[in-house]
Specification:
By secondary structure, the chain is an alpha/beta fold. The protein contains 13 helices and 13 strands. The strands form three sheets. A six-stranded mixed sheet has the order 10-9-11-6-12-13, sandwiched between helices. A five-stranded mixed sheet has the order 3-2-1-4-5, with helices on both faces. Strand 7 and strand 8 form a beta hairpin. Helix 9 crosses helix 10. It is globular. The chain starts with a strand and ends in a 5-residue tail after the last strand.
Length: about 375
């Protein structure tokens, strides 16, 4: 763990708005050793959106490294002044990004921002250009735009660009869910009823427009656990596609509470569980905090958008990762995790636009199970 780190972040747009990407480097503030690099293509966006995206990626990487003190160096005067509190954030598309960056920054004991000339930010700038190059190359291979079956929210939100549409499917029933036990990393299969739920969800998705375009099936991406893999495979069989796996979509690690009921966990650690339920930064004993899950899922989302930006994706996951993605779409606080219910085999839909806007289109739909 490194206590004091330096973040160099940059973003660029070829057209402003145009194809955009970001780069971020995290270094040991004392030795200058490179500890982490981040880069991603963000689609069609402005320079400012790309710059903020680079800062967010850098702060998230620093948090993953366990840093407590952070120095940020950027050649974006706007981002540095807004994050320092000297300039107001007036543009609606910048406000969610600024809020997200400030929420990440609040995790550290101190964050200091410094403007530097572009020539001194060459490492991050190089990563941003690599991301834009890669994104531009992929753009020529992007699928055709598909007619949507509902009115787009673009006109009334001001969102621009083609969104990445995420169809979020929770896995079907398992023996652990029947008994209402903490079920995180435990690798349990679907029950027979769970398989029926997965088949119903698969039938529902098979009837939706936009998942098969010119014979090409939308990417189907699942958590590595067997319950999500089985649910995703049912969907893949219905659509004629294949299942990919992304570790970032895995459920919360409940540590020592894995397999316990809520009452059993409360009897075992009464004070600790009460604190855990009121503070998302606290990890379960030997496990993972909800804040940690949120950062992990955000990173997974960014990676998937960088790879499949502008397309429709089917993500098969668990309660907490799906709630985290909906939370990002709503730009909501962590209390949403405790106030939103998601049924087994439910379907939710969120769209993320390249300019930073988002739209939640559906939450916890289980009409296909009736």
């Amino acid at each position: 763990m490194t206590d004091h780190v330096l973040i160099e972040a940059d973003g660029g747009s070829r057209g402003n708005p145009g194809p955009a990407g970001y780069g971020a480097v995290v270094k040991d503030a004392v030795t200058g050793e490179v500890l982490a690099e981040r880069k991603a293509y963000v689609g069609i966006a402005t320079n400012n959106v790309a710059e903020y995206s680079g800062l967010i990626a850098g702060l998230a990487a620093a948090a993953e490294l366990g840093a407590s003190t952070v120095d940020v160096r950027m050649d974006s005067k706007l981002v540095v002044e807004q994050m320092s509190g000297r300039w107001k954030v007036k543009h609606p598309s910048m406000q969610p990004l600024n809020a997200e960056a400030k929420a990440l920054a609040a995790r550290f004991s101190r964050v200091r921002y410094e403007w530097i000339p572009r020539a001194e930010n060459s490492h991050a700038d190089g990563l941003a250009n690599e991301a834009m190059d890669a994104g531009t190359e992929k753009k020529s291979e992007a699928p055709k735009t598909v007619k949507q079956d509902r009115i787009s929210p673009v006109g009334w939100t001001g969102a621009t660009g083609t969104p990445t549409k995420l169809l979020l499917v929770r896995h079907g029933q398992t023996a652990m869910s029947v008994d209402k036990r903490y079920s995180g990393r435990g690798d349990v299969p679907l029950t027979d009823h769970g398989k029926q739920q997965a088949a119903a969800a698969a039938k529902r998705l098979g009837s939706m427009e936009g998942l098969v375009v010119d014979g090409e099936v939308a990417p189907i991406i699942a958590s590595p656990l067997i319950r999500t893999q089985q649910t995703a495979q049912a969907i893949a069989d219905a659509l004629g596609g294949r299942v990919e796996t992304h570790p970032g979509l895995i459920e919360t690690d409940f540590g020592d509470w894995e397999g316990l009921t809520f009452k059993e966990a409360m009897d075992r650690d009464p004070e600790f569980q009460t604190d855990w339920l009121s503070d998302t930064s606290i990890a379960a004993p030997g496990g993972e905090s909800f804040d940690g899950v949120h950062r992990r899922v955000r990173k997974a989302r960014d990676e998937l958008i960088a790879q499949y930006g502008g397309r429709t994706l089917v993500l098969v996951s668990h309660v907490t990762p799906i709630k985290s993605l909906l939370r990002m779409g709503l730009d909501a606080g962590p209390s949403l995790l405790f106030r939103l219910h998601l049924d087994l085999a439910s379907l939710s839909i969120v769209e993320f636009y390249p300019d930073g806007n988002a739209s939640v289109r559906l939450v916890n739909d289980i009409s296909h199970l009736s």
